[in-house]
Structures are given as structure tokens and as C-alpha cells.
Sequence to fold (247 residues):
Amino acid sequence: MPEIGLQLYTLRELMEQDFIGTLKKVAKIGYQAVEFHHFGGMTAKELRGVVDDLGLKPLSSHVALDRLEHELEQVISESVELGLEYVVCPWLPESRRETPEAIASLASVLEKIGARCQEAGLQFAYHNHDFEFAKVGDEFALDVLFANTSANHVQAELDLYWIKRAGQDPVAYIQKYKNRCDLLHVKDMSAKDGSFDTVGQGVLPWPDIFAAAEQAGAKWYIVEQDVCPGDPLESIQTSLQFLLQQR
Fold:
């Protein structure tokens, strides 16, 4: 079974109040690794000391496309110093994805970013939402993007909730990008209203997802719940317990 990490965006409000204290709680709950969306005002070196002391693996970080395009060497330097394995592009402005020409241009940019990351010993990945399932020509933008980039330079960090939200089958997408989806964002969908839910508490077909993920060579399940109606710490603990029960 893939290892288990946490996207810290789930705890963003708590981290604004106490960044290091919240990391301590994540470690106490039992997570092995974390995916960052910012460094809490610390340098990469300072943050590396914190996570090392807590026994947390600094696995990956979401980095805005603008920084990847204009500050790539700084991003790489920070990522290497922090000890990350993956750098992930998490979002696209609409202008970069609305036409075949825009997608082709974007694919070229991501390919170059991924090649440079690989030279530095990092793996680059792209994280989807649901907007990539708009058609560009006869295909979904996400599929066009991956078809025009190489698997070794641009991994697919598949977000299973957003695939489901777009009306597509998460299992089929894991199978489609076999050996290209090291990282899977795991979150669930409420049966009541389609909102975000704790892993194992919603409608996603987890037994089928687990089987497909193992066959596809996924390495990490990264828990994320974009919005938690209750205590986010309880949510991430329940999600972790559910995933651990599958071992």
C-alpha cells in the first residue's frame, strides 16, 4: 500500500495561528509526511530542522505557476534544501487552459520546468481540479496536457475528489495514468450534497481505488480536505485511521 501524507492546506487556519504547533499535532496524530503550500515564514533550512525534529518527511510542496515560471531556480534551491522529493503545480489561471493553443503552450512550459527539476534531483507534478475536464477540441484539457508532456518530467498528482466532481471515474483515471501517478490526493465526497468529506465517509469507491492505486504503482496517498465543516484535526485523524485500516 502507498505511504500516507497530509497536504497542510487542510489545516491552513490553524497554521496561521501556530505553524509549528500545528505541525507537532500532525506528527502526534501519526502522519509520516507532509505536503506544504507555504513555509510559514521560515527559510527552507529552518523548516527542515523543524520537520526533522518532529520525524515528519518533507515530501512535496505546491508552488504557484508564476513562481515556477519566473523563480524556478529559487524554488529548486528551497526544495533541495528542505529535502523535498516533489514540486507540484497546483492551479492554472483560466487564460492558460481555455484553448488548444494555450494548452500546447502550457505543456511546453511544464515540460521544461519538469526537465529542470529532474536535473536537480526533484520530480515535478501537476495537480488537477475539475476545470481541466472542460473539453479542448475533442479531449479534456487534462488529457491534452499529459499527452503533450513526458511522464518522467510531468507526473500526475491526481485529485480523486475533483475527478469525481467533474463527473469522471477516479479509478479509470488512476488506471489511465499507471506509473505516472506517484502522488494521489485522497479526499471524499459527501453523499448529501457533493461537498468535501473525510476519507472513507463519502461516496468514493475506496476498495476499487486502493486496488487500482497499487496496480498503478502509486507511492503516496496525500490526505486533503479543502473545507472541513468540523474540527480539521479530527478530520485528518479519521482519514488516517481509515487508510491505516486498509493495510
